[in-house]
Amino acid sequence: MQPRFFSAPGIFPVPPHVCTLLPVYFNTAAAFCQVLIERDKVCRRKNFSIYVRIRNISVFFRISMKRRISVCHYGAGRKKSGGGKTDTYREEVTFTENISEKEERKEGYASQKLAERLGRLAEAHRFVRCQTVGRSLCGRNIRALFIGCGEKRLLYTGAHHGSEYITSALLCDFAEEFASAADMGGRRFGVDCRDVLERRTLVILPMVNPDGVDIALMGADKNTPLGAKLWSLNKNSGDFSHWQANARGVDPNHNYNYRFAEYKQLEKSLGIQPGASGYSGEYPESEPETLAVARLVNRLSAAGAQGGRLCAVLSFHTQGEVIFSHNTRECIAGAAFLSRVSGYRDEKTDLGAAGLTGSYGGLSDWVSRELLIPAYTVECGKGKNPLPQSDRGYIYARIREMLFLSAVYF
Ligand SMILES: [Zn+2]
């Protein structure tokens, strides 16, 4: 992949530990000018690189999973030497970080942190409103950002699955970049962000399943009634890092109203139990998280005075670098477009191997088949869930163009 420059000052997805260390090294916040990200191709899962351009100096970061960050000036960084000549210079520094990956995740990705970030976004940007659209089983707010006031609406959802909390951060990064660009009258990928918001409303629901996210991040206390139940659903293991379901073991993305009864039979034959990925619950929309999303979708798709409608739904998950959709008239062109601008594979859930458990009860299944609105499941990143937070910058770089262009395409 060719390195790509981020054009927005101050808005880019650098992992928090890099943000902390950059000013230490440069002693200035002006270090955040332009960032370019490239994944190490050889050791795909182990390292990635970030280039930061500070005035006329380029800095190269190499970040490894062992939390070691090396920084070196290179290339465009030219120092004036005697006689007016410029010499290319190179300097390396290595930082080692002590915060464990787990601690950092708790800090940055928990539902409470997300709620705080959404509140800040709504306060800081004039086109952004934050609204509670439902409550989880354990009473956590399910909140959405409404950006703009146009009649055509687009819905972006993240973290249906607990361990996929990185998608919440990615959608917030997008909301923040879009809203900042709109404030300043800026363009991204040719999209005039302010102009778009006069005709369209972007609805961003970054965390559908806040209980599941907090369970995946912080586990469950066996000594509480809920914790004991969760332990038993988790086969008596205290490792909840792969938890996908909500707080009673239902997979929210198998709980929508599409081919539900049919899937129930399949689920039985496959031996899928509560707590496991793909367990669909007792009846469609039995779960408060699913119900909140379904109600929001119905609200958004209701016709407005000026012929308002819901133009598309993009549901973000990890992982696989693939975009799933149905082979329907409404979805086909959009799937090809999203695939072209992201480089992610275009795959039809109702054809081939993915169809086994993939095209029942999901948000995209319900929206595209029952409401006949284009809907896509975007599986971001590659690897094993939960993806490490160090992947966030790389994934955002891959999906950024798709996110911006989707706002005008549908
Ligand atoms: Zn998922």
Q: What CATH architecture of the largest domain do you see?
A: 3-Layer(aba) Sandwich
What is the CATH homologous superfamily assignment of the largest domain?
Zn peptidases
* CATH topology-level fold name of the largest domain: Aminopeptidase
> Which structural class best describes the helix and strand composition?
alpha+beta
Which CATH top level class of the largest domain fits?
Alpha Beta
The separation of the N and C termini measures: 27 Å
Helix fraction, binned, reads 25-40%
- Number of self-contained structural domains: 2
What features would you describe in this structure?
With 410 residues, the protein is of the alpha+beta class. It has 2 domains: 4-98, no CATH class; 104-211 and 286-409, Aminopeptidase (3-Layer(aba) Sandwich). Helices cover 35% and strands 24% of the residues. It is built from 13 helices and 18 strands. The chain has helices at residues 16-26, 101-109, 111-124, 166-184, 193-199, 210-218, 225-233, 260-270, 288-301, 332-342, 355-358, 363-370, 392-409; strands at 4-5, 34-39, 47-54, 57-64, 68-74, 78-80, 86-88, 91-96, 128-135, 141-147, 152-157, 187-188, 191-192, 200-205, 309-318, 322-325, 345-348, 375-380. The strands form 4 sheets. The chain has an 8-stranded mixed sheet with strand order 9-10-14-11-15-18-16-17, with helices on both faces. A 6-stranded antiparallel sheet has the order 1-2-3-4-5-8, covered by helices on one side. A hairpin with a 5-residue loop joins strand 9 (128-135) and strand 10 (141-147). Helix 2 (101-109) runs antiparallel to helix 6 (210-218) and helix 4 crosses helix 13. The longest helix has 19 residues, at 166-184. Zinc ion is lined by residues 160-161, 164, 253, 317. Zinc ion binds at residues 160-161, 164, 253, 317.
